[in-house]
Amino acid sequence: EVHLLESGGGLVQPGGSLRLSCAASGFTFYHNAMAWVRQGPGKGLEWVSAIAGGGDGETTTYYADSVKGRFTISRDNSKNTLYLHAHSLRADDTAIYYCAKDRGRLLDTGALDLWGQGTMVSVSS
Amino acid sequence: QSALTQPASVSGSPGQSITISCTGTSSDVGRYDLVSWYQHHPGKAPKLMIYEVSKWPSGVSNRFSGSKSGNTASLTISSLQAEDEADYYCCSYADARSSSSSYVFGTGTKVTVL
What we know:
The complex is a heterodimer of chains A (125) and B (114). Chain A contains no helices and eleven strands. Chain A is an all-beta fold.
């Protein structure tokens, strides 16, 4: 069965850091682009970051302006795991963070066809 | 990149049809036939319902249909059922070379079955 399972969320103080993980199973993880999407309290879905699949060397990454320079996306294809390293966290980063699989390799399909249940990140003092 | 514009809420009675609009710009919805729609029940994983404007992923009911005209995409739910009550989001590809993000989501629409 295809499945994505996020972990690593929690309560962190402003300015702190977290590493989110997403364990994938049931599909050829290496092939597909992967993304992080978040939903703040009472808000809609917001695309956060993505990383291309099938990379033999440097892998293309993308970031929303709101997290550029603070968040880093990476993947370990040997472990079928996607990561999001979040630094300099702010109150407005508080959200449920979802991991999602793109339909294609290069993040150019416009569609995310598999989502995890999400992990909650709360930024507060 | 600004969020695509959706109505905050749409409602209908069981058996009726409803349509949700999603308005973007000539840089996203209007430029690419890469619009997708997601159903999201709170507390659950979002589910892809439509991709590439009007295509169905495996297992999705054909009661859900998509279309696009100019900068506006639409999702129609026919024969509305109680389990269709959820939040719905559109999403469009936006070229990362000219935009701050590869994909842009809509503001979301809460569908209520009366």
